[in-house]
Amino acid sequence: MFLEKVGIPEATYHYHMKQLQKEDPDKVWKERINELFEKHEGKYGYRRIHLALRAQGHEINHKKVQRIMGEMGLKCEKFTRKSRYKSYKGTVGKVARNRLNRRFSTTVRLQKLVTDVTEFKCMEDQKLYLSPIMDLHNGEIISFGISKRPTLDFVMEPLNQALEIIKDEAEYRTTIHSDQGWHYQHNNWVKTLSKNKIFQSMSRKGNCADNAVMENFFGILKQEMYYGEELIAYEDLKRKIEKYIHYYNNDRIKVKLAGLSPIQYRTLTSQSAA
């Protein structure tokens, strides 16, 4: 009687009732995708989710992952606010030539390293400074320093940590690239590199594209764990950055590393070479 009043044929009614009772064919995929999205705290877009699923042995088209994430409202949020620490104070020491010349890729571990300094704001008008050293072979942060002040010792600490790794594991002579910040022109930095037979390379004045890989790392780090968040105390932010760098090295996959994290890629290529 009701169907006659609303003008719906009985066959149509039963068809739609059956469709509603059917289980969602993407239910399992949605569960897996949501689990990965939450595991990486919303940092993964559909490309990395797709690679992560493939790494788990699942076969699924990247367009299907994109569609499902769109239906579920899972979006990797990006923030565009930027802040950049400037350590350039003119020519206060030795300026090295640009040996790297934007050749950011290498198949040799520890052959090309890049470094820079960035700053973060904390509560109570404090600042935090981060100085990492990255291996361009796999994008791994091999050492880093964190300090309340951008002193010379602050950048020398990660350099000395990196030198220990280079001495034990480097197969070819290493080049370390930076901008023309005063730390990298300082006699202590220059002499330490020379003493350890490390080539020094510097970006051209005011040209951040010459160190684009490190600039990109700073952008990713701040987008994924700093921008859009409330300011926190120095010690809390320090722990948060340390945790993120561990995550970045060990768990955060890179499309250009065939869906592997930097350390996973290093381990795989070391095994292949052996």
Automatic annotation (TrEMBL):
Entries under Gene3D superfamilies matching the protein: Ribonuclease H-like superfamily/Ribonuclease H
Protein's job: Involved in the transposition of the insertion sequence.
PANTHER family for this protein: TRANSPOSASE INSF FOR INSERTION SEQUENCE IS3B-RELATED, TRANSPOSASE INSO FOR INSERTION SEQUENCE ELEMENT IS911B-RELATED
GO molecular function: nucleic acid binding
GO biological process: DNA integration
InterPro entries hit by this protein: HTH-like_dom (IPR025948), Integrase_cat-core (IPR001584), RNaseH-like_sf (IPR012337), RNaseH_sf (IPR036397), Transpos_IS3 (IPR048020), Transposase_IS3/IS150/IS904 (IPR050900)
Highest taxon listed in the record's lineage: Bacteria
Organism the protein comes from: Lottiidibacillus patelloidae
Regions crossing the membrane: none
Domain Integrase catalytic: 103-270
Protein name: Integrase catalytic domain-containing protein
